[in-house]
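Teaching note: in complex prediction, the entire set of molecules is handled at once rather than each chain in isolation. The prompt given to students was simply: 'Predict the structure of this complex.' The entities are:
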Amino acid sequence: MVVGRVAIPFVPPRLVRRHGWTIGVYALLLASLIFTVAIHPTYGAFDIKSLALGALPLALAAAAQTVVVLSGGIDLTVGPLMAVTNVLAARAMLHSNFRDALLIAVLVLILGCAAGAFNGSIVVFSRVPDIVVTLAMSFVWGGVALLILEKPGGGAPLDFQNLAQEATLSPWVPNALVLLIVVVAAVWMPLRGSRLGLALYAIGSDRTAAHASGVNVPLVRILAYTLSGVFAAIGGLALTMTTGIGSPLSGSFYTLSGVATIVLGGVSLAGGKGGMLGPMAAAFILTLIPADLIFLGIDPNYGQVIQGIVIVLVVMVGGLAALRRKPA
Amino acid sequence: MTVRRYFQEHPIVVLSLLLLLLVGVLEAIRPGAVTPNWFRTTVLFAAPLGILAAGQTLVMLTGGIDLSVANVATAAAYIMASNARHGDLQAVLLGLAVGVAVGLVNGLGIAVFQAQPLIMTLGMALVVTGGLTVYSQFAVTSVPSVPGFIHTLGAGTVLGFVPVSLLLWAPIAVIIVVGLRRTGFGRLLYAIGDNAAACRLAGVRVWQVRLVNYTLCGLLSAIAGLVLAGTINTADLGLANTFLLPTVAAVVIGGTSIFSGSGNYSGTIIGAMILTVLNSVLTLLDAPEPIKQILYGAIILLLATAYTRVLSDT
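The expected output is the structure of the full assembly:
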């Protein structure tokens, strides 16, 4: 028996197959950085720092959204929760020293944790769709933020602000970037490998199957919202660091931008698919676009249009790719 | 259990009772507040929300959502007002064209390219708002003005207390309510919301239905934008921006499920009325803005929870 030569189809390595989208996002980030340097030759350490400062709150908002979306839900309270923690921190930290500010930051984190757990509990126990619960809760948290601080104000010690605003390690490595890496590495990395991380992905991809395999679905859902609250609180603290004040409306931008960021970062809104690294790069890309437009001398108002077009194209391409893989 | 069964089969009755209860609360807080004139203003403010929520109902019936309705309404009103000097008809047609165009793109992305409705319409919302800002800076030379007949449409009254906008809203409502029940297109919306895969296997061209549905939603949003511009008698770049979340709330309170193809526009109408009356109750309470927001969110949540509990089978 002669076995004829069979054309072996090219199979990309496992790493590329599993993380193709993430690698693509980083390639896109690299390409847009190269493009930026090309159109703006003096792009340097200072610009890198302002890029990181701009991307930090968005990246944290995206992290908060990612956790919930991976578990098969959606959280429309991310922005308002960021605003609540932002104004709370700025109000409490006014005229305080660095040590007190750190203590306040820890308390604010605990509060974010509690707020997230509260959101999650309502989602689970009311049995109302998550999008509706978090939509209603976004009014509530928005009101709470206004109660704490009626108009922009408050403050934070300079040392605390410098946790994000300086570049301690090297002028090219802004603290904001280090902070983001530390947060993701400390909160997400250990979790992802744990049983809870596995359960999170499991309930996101098939809730019934997860339940049948012994996952406590309601508990994991509540924990997902809790973790989202923690990331949102870190995002609020980041807003306090980067702006130096608290503003009750500071979060309004971040709920939906966070959703856009994670989709660009390869997280499926259907749940259970995606990771944390893609959205982080996507936050930098979406922050870089308006900056590039200014360098190009284009009216920054086009920024929103281009961001919108990027999102629309990305979801269309993503949808088409999914369609080719799995003909309906 | 028969009472419960009755409510399960006629959710509209529960909602109407709730609406009456809220009106009762209003009358209790400020005796003499409920008059024909009160009715007029309530309908005036409910009409734009109701028409905007009509489009939202249609897309949510199929398991989708449209986050661009408020931006489309704003864009339609602004473009209508800034072209008013070219003639009323042209201005209105241009405004409506914006809605149809955005709806069509939404529909293309969702129906043909299989994009998630949430993110597709969010992206288009950004495009519309950004595009409108650019348009207002570079293309608009004169101050936008709302034509007189649009102002009459949005704020006028006939027979003493019947708002003119009701004369537009009522036919739209009848067409949608009856259309959903009696036409093939209406039934297909329910079928797709229930099980799109089964529809496809049964030979339904699901993508065509979705495309038309999102386009209709865009058109309805544009109409709502024109009515709202008439009610307020100005058209600025933030005209309808606060209306997005209330449209979703009105649909949900009205009993349309996001997960399965059930619900109807009649529920949404009551939902829009409930939200409008709730707003005037909160205004009458004279509470500070933050408290009003918190109460607004909490009451929507309570209503949705109660509703889910009453209607769930277990």
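Point out the following to students. Chain B has one domain: 11-311. Chain B has 14 helices and two strands.
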